[in-house]
Specification:
Blueprint lengths: L4 H4 L3 E4 L7 E4 L1 H4 L2 H14 L7 E5 L2 H13 L2 E7 L7 E7 L4 E7 L8 E9 L3 H12 L3 E10 L14 E6 L1
Parallel strand pairs: 3-4, 3-7, 7-8, 8-9
Antiparallel strand pairs: 1-2, 4-6, 5-6
Helix pairs in contact: 3-4
The structure holds adenosine monophosphate.
The site of adenosine monophosphate has 20 residues, from strand 2, helix 4, strand 7 and helix 5.
Amino acid sequence: MASSQHLRAAVRDIPDFPQPGILFKDITPVLADGKLFHDSITLLCASAGDLTIDKVVGIDARGFIFAAAVADRLGIGFVPVRKAGKLPWKTRGLAYSLEYGENVIELHEDSVQPGENILLVDDLLATGGTAAAAAQLIQSLGAKLVGASFFIELTDLKGREKMPDVPIHAILSY
Ligand code: AMP
């Protein structure tokens, strides 16, 4: 089960959402199909290869869906990076720009420990602003970002160039 073509066929393109000019990649048909969702998580786990990973960090909100399932499959913990004001404990935050608009993300200060190996997971890599900000937060707490895995990468936006030191994998590239 190395192919991802059946997953590609299920991703739905929504033009001009959430604003004109954005071609939104709707992954909900993948999630709604048990086999497609299962295969997505298998491929995301495989993309981490032989890395030793202590925790999976997922990005608010669609990233949670993939990241939590990957963490469970790997038998390790899941940590949420959330939009500002959502996490109840002591947080560290960072502002960044994304393909459409601006955002602030936060991480609980005690959610990753110095020296821990972290895999970052999100649904989609576009400009890389979100992932790079999450990477910075993780690293600022002393943890090691050993890889970043995405269900989709929009290659024209060159997001991976924002994280030159992190091995990046995507299941589907457009
Ligand atoms: P970026 O920071 O530009 O890499 O944007 C990545 C984040 O924005 C991801 O968490 C995605 O969920 C979301 N996103 C950006 N562009 C798209 C798109 N064309 N389709 C779906 N989600 C997107």
